[in-house]
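Worked example (supplementary).
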Amino acid sequence: MITSSQNHRVKLVRGLLGRAKERREAGAFVAEGVRLVEEAARANWSMKFVLYDESLSERGMQTVKLLTSLGVETEQVTAQVMDSLSDTETAQGILAVLAFSELPYSPAADFILIPDQVRDPGNLGTLLRSADAAGASLVLIPPGTTDPFSPKVVRAGMGAHFRLPLRSMTWDEIRQFRTTPASGRILLADMQGASCWETDLRQPLTLIIGGEAEGASPQARALASQSICIPMAGGSESLNAAVAGSVLMFEIMRQRKGK
Amino acid sequence: MITSSQNHRVKLVRGLLGRAKERREAGAFVAEGVRLVEEAARANWSMKFVLYDESLSERGMQTVKLLTSLGVETEQVTAQVMDSLSDTETAQGILAVLAFSELPYSPAADFILIPDQVRDPGNLGTLLRSADAAGASLVLIPPGTTDPFSPKVVRAGMGAHFRLPLRSMTWDEIRQFRTTPASGRILLADMQGASCWETDLRQPLTLIIGGEAEGASPQARALASQSICIPMAGGSESLNAAVAGSVLMFEIMRQRKGK
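After joint prediction of all chains, the assembly is encoded as:
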């Protein structure tokens, strides 16, 4: 049982819950809570270790046992140590330290999402969760978007991180990446664009969603070949960035299903 | 200039930023930030008073001048007093205390939203913002959903509060309200429902969206005549509640526009 907040694993977790730089240097990130650890286990995600405390539920203990039997190092910590670590108000008594690892994507990826200048971790996580549910094939994270492996993004992503390929790229890399023949159009979500209901979204495409505060970057605007919007009623001027992205992604799914 | 945090107006604002009970008793709520105060002014919303500090932008000062000329009491406070009040990390140096006031709704309201057991203020505010943008006619707030006039909900609503009629009701009242002839079907968003793309949503309807943690209440389930879902790809099991509600509301709008 780990009782000291100066234990090297505890210190590592504290670092990983903090800045992106710490995560990059350690090549790892943290998933908190029973459900996320279960999702990581189900996805066979490479785990460095798991910490839990006495408050862990029966269901959570089952996961700990399963992971131990699979060779993952699991260690109990005191409730105090866990409290000092948890990023949430309603800690669930378990967290896993996961290795950075890139899910493969198909070279024929025909539905790519670029969340651009999305600074709010909750919004980015929600976008990833929706992208996963709407059948996106790949997400490219440009500079200026918040770190997709921060605890809040991972939590709001609800397991999307373990199913949906993500790549962090510079705009130059994105431009290069996107010159493959099959990559299709690049669409920018924009108030001034054509109605998404009157745009054919069935062919391969990349969708850029700008952040709430500043919208899309000049680089994103330069890259996009076309803009689309969600028509709106009344006096409202915009939608939450995660909502706008989600509505557009499910419209893509609807059209591709021929509904 | 108000310099004391014991000033009666400052104390009132502090109360209104806190519990729902304080807002009910005072019959008032708070809108923070230049944009929200502008939206309230544009909607001709009844204002009790406005507080601002020296950090207020030029644009914000124009609004203060306009409101003063319209007879609203505006008072400068010290930056310290404002800091002690603001609920946000990035205060914008202005807040308005607004009277509770019920926007009228059409008796022919044909698109009613019921956010049920939505506990997260950000999610409720985002749902209101989307409902406004998707042309909903009325929102009914049942018991168990977070107070729509808390500062976080008002902020996430981005002005929806000033355009979209809201009513807090018990389930008995909702049942009664909904027995008017023109009120149409009651649809519950539910994973087990029929695809929203294969359900005709053009006729009058009420849409119930359950909260993230517990879903919809037994009362909501008893009231609903039909369930609809958003089809999902891959291993994902659910969407963020605000996202699910928004995708469904824009699907209603799409169908009604004949797209």
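Two points are worth noting when inspecting this output. The radius of gyration of chain B is 20 Å. Chain B has two domains: 8-99, 111-256.
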